[in-house]
Specification:
275 residues, alpha+beta, 8-stranded antiparallel beta sheet, 6 helices, 12 strands, binds zinc ion
Length: 275
Amino acid sequence: MKKRSSTLVLSTSTKNYIISLFAIIIIIISAIAIFVTYLSSYVKDIKQEKIALENQIKQKEEFYEALEDKIEDVKYLLGMDAQEEFSQNISAMLNSITPTQKRIILNSIPNGYPSFARKITSGFGNRFHPIYKRVKFHHGIDFGGKVGTPIMATAEGIVEFAGYDKGYGYLVVIDHNFGFKTAYGHMLKNLKVKEGDFVKKGEVIGFLGNSGISTGPHLHYEVKFIRRVLDPKNFINWSILNFDEIFYKEKRVAWNSLTKAIMNQYDKLNQLSLK
Ligand SMILES: [Zn+2]
């Protein structure tokens, strides 16, 4: 009996202890609950703010993209205005140039088709963009074709870029002689060249694909002179057979100074061979 009452006494103090412990735990739990509720509402606010900001950024990006397109249009028009006078120098150069020299020029400046996929699915200039759903300046020519069709360099040069570039997908940019550049977009991942490589005209640089912002397998091909985007059409149709034509057709290339550069190189070569 005595033993029992002593346990009872002990139980009462333990009871009090347990009650206060419970009270403390409940206070802590409610404090945590309040804090978590506050934190989650705070996170929710931040998330909403983030979404609003993202929308704002997207709108701004679209605005700037449209503005960039307009700038490109203006640049293109300015280039058209800044047409160089077709000088006597060029006709003199065309008259004096030998077939071998023509072949050397055709090796250095982009010409011919970049692949056997030759069906033009979208030309150069303003067009309604199928993905952006608005008029956008198309900086190149699109060739539809089978995935895996080899893509070749249209002139010799140094690979300036070989990798993934947002809208272009897998892209290769080649820096050629005399200020020309070509770009090949939407290729397959297994590019055959890397930055800094020297490529010969006709060398396979990669394969036709559907990477980046693209509605189907095609090659996007660009030709640039200094920072001007050119219509690749004139360059695609350029060969030894119609060598002179491009000098009259493509007015956005500074053929005057280019002529000087080319002749200067030949003079140097001649001097070297005479020594
Ligand atoms: Zn394109």
